[in-house]
């Protein structure tokens, strides 16, 4: 058997490393073995194996959100990549710069339609800002630069390199890699700021809706100053990629979910949008518009590729709005006894009391996500990642990626059970890498959001077929066993005292702990 | 909130039921709730919930392979569908007729690019023989017929219906559904049979390579008669969708995997191909051709859309080849003691001794797959499903689908641990539906195939990076805990006596049992 190994793969990894890549979330197969060899030769890119591709892509997303550095994924042809699509969908919505490396058959082998052959480009396009099929051994650096540029664009997102084995196996002289510069955000013009100041000043009611870059602490403070001057409220987009909350930051309200709630929430206010899009209904509901604030009450202060922080600061300056010192939040006395059965609100209270400074929370599911984002301002300063695209199975992988991106930080995963099942293999990666992730798994053993939606249309939840498609109680998953199976310590709790003790233990561990919190 | 529910969804399900659909493997979300309601109204289609979409699609594939009846899947927009793509890739290679129903946003909501919006057609096309976007409430029956026709074509495969909620919610008068007729295979002409007989008769060495429909027991018997007359060997394609083996069937050899092995195996024989394709290298290896038998030594007796069984029978008749009674196979005395540590061969021996008549085996992974297909002829008559497309995570879901397709039959899942992790959520479905699936989980805690490939090129398996990307021993998954977490009884065995006892218990249970068989 002749050796297949060349250094095209090494050249590719070196070019990506020069462009800032420091980590590779991998689930390789035969077509990626040259890249596995190359990862051994380029150890400055750290390799993290996962048991399932959705863990790789979700972890890459979390890694980017927390660090702003571009991670790699290494995935096996079309089908392996396909398993990573759901979390790349979220990453695309989060504008997370990720470079997917997908091995493919040698170019001369493709026409034979071997079993694993598929149309990778068609699969990758919907979740990629750029799809580059590498076909020229002399263009490895250029292809890497192309992918880096797309990933680190403004707004950035996943970029995909389809890498035939013959390109990876070819011996090439590594070129001098030219690292691409991250793109810069466009400044919002002084004229637009002045117009916004005038219109906001005249509005009878005002909402500043922040998202993306315009959710940074500086942006939140500028927004608070503006509404301190003009009146009104500051809202955040409903599903931020990452947002800093709590500590001495001013209060911020989250945009609601159902269209009727959003319409009520927005009232007759002028909605000034920075760093995100105008409010859109999450799903289309008969009788409600898709766009929930009419154009005449919308003012786009900064587009997704513009400098929202600078725009908000300039607007505050124009309005001569002074910085606001938020009131310190006296925590309400917990309204529970130690033996009280758990509720989402009690779980949130327990965590508010114990969350360490600078923790990172990975939120998935509305059971704990809603209450947390309502109360987060009362916790110490922390960052929260939410599910940006609605593709479930994000929470656990994203938590793992966050922990790898911020060594020394505590990561807390607030995870609904229904969505947790999609990528539970992330637990293995947490155990393997000894990641300090404390998981509170909200176990209500049902698809709560579906029951909520069905209730809104008065569907019969007790109908045997409808019940069988929305309840997860036959059998009830035992998450402590699932966690143990993947090497993660776990405990099941049913009351406040149990949760408090488990949480204290979890937050003190160097590695992961899963707390199965039983809910009604 | 106005009611969203209409009966477009009911009309669709009734049309698909009229066309033969009897089961729906579902993982619905908000955009599919009208279809959930409709499933309650059309209970003649059985709903099976799974925790992950790859379980739905893999189970649908297994269901079709065993029953030949078209199952439905119900999946949630692009990201939910994406999680099902890997197993649909295998289903496409298996020519399994499956109809995927994917909910999408209402057509009027699509332009707003809500979070879950994506290009579903681009995602679905690579694994679908037809992708139909339903846009006309008066075309529901026609769209259903289109999908059924594609799914049940010759060769058939997955077909995908993209179903906007506004179409499902519309009140329509159900039309008289016209069930589509399954397509018929074309007959191979008498002239081609005569030419084949002549050429085969003159060949110094002969191989009959069977696959697809030409792997049926009748086809295998006709092939045995032909080589009984002319000399030569009967081979099966390396990854059959489903093949009947054992009992009184004649011996059949499996096409090898690596190109050098296939080239040796084929020697200088004339290779007569029925129901499958000419031997192609699974991957492209430098120095080896993609097509492993040159055109001049190939004779295509029947194409994929032709009647391979009839062609083999006609060829046997033309050659006046008499039916062959295969020698009964005296089982070799097991070369082990009860306390012998397990090996793949010992596991296979234990199962050969115990497998009940008419069992169905779902094979995934070469650890047990290779030895089983070498020895299967010594077992009682049974059917084997293999991984047709190389997308891993097929074995457990496919076993679940097979059990649902053949009530009363024993299903055995011979599953490698590496690939088992991708869709372990299938265990929950097995527990929930009390499926008589006995799983032998070959736990070697590594990606054996990758180590084999790396060994072929003398890569350093002990290099820390290469080891970290090919070994699964840190931590070792505890499959008994994973199974318990999903409600499946499980036992870990390390020696022959332990395996024998576990297997006897598993094969006597009404529900699933997972046997974690530890291997070196």
Automatic annotation (TrEMBL), chains A, B:
Residues 380-516 form the Thiamine pyrophosphate enzyme TPP-binding domain. InterPro entries: THDP-binding, Thiamin_PyroP_enz_TPP-bd_dom, TPP_enz, TPP_enzyme_TPP-bd. Its EC number is 2.2.1.6. Gene3D superfamilies: 3.40.50.970. GO terms for biological process: small molecule metabolic process. Residues 7-109 form the Thiamine pyrophosphate enzyme N-terminal TPP-binding domain. Pfam families: TPP_enzyme_C (PF02775), TPP_enzyme_N (PF02776). Keywords: Thiamine pyrophosphate, Transferase. The keyword Transferase applies. GO terms for molecular function: acetolactate synthase activity; flavin adenine dinucleotide binding; thiamine pyrophosphate binding. Belongs to the TPP enzyme family. PANTHER family: ACETOLACTATE SYNTHASE LARGE SUBUNIT ILVX-RELATED, THIAMINE PYROPHOSPHATE ENZYMES. This is Acetolactate synthase-1/2/3 large subunit. The lineage of its organism: Bacteria, Pseudomonadati, Pseudomonadota, Alphaproteobacteria, Sphingomonadales.
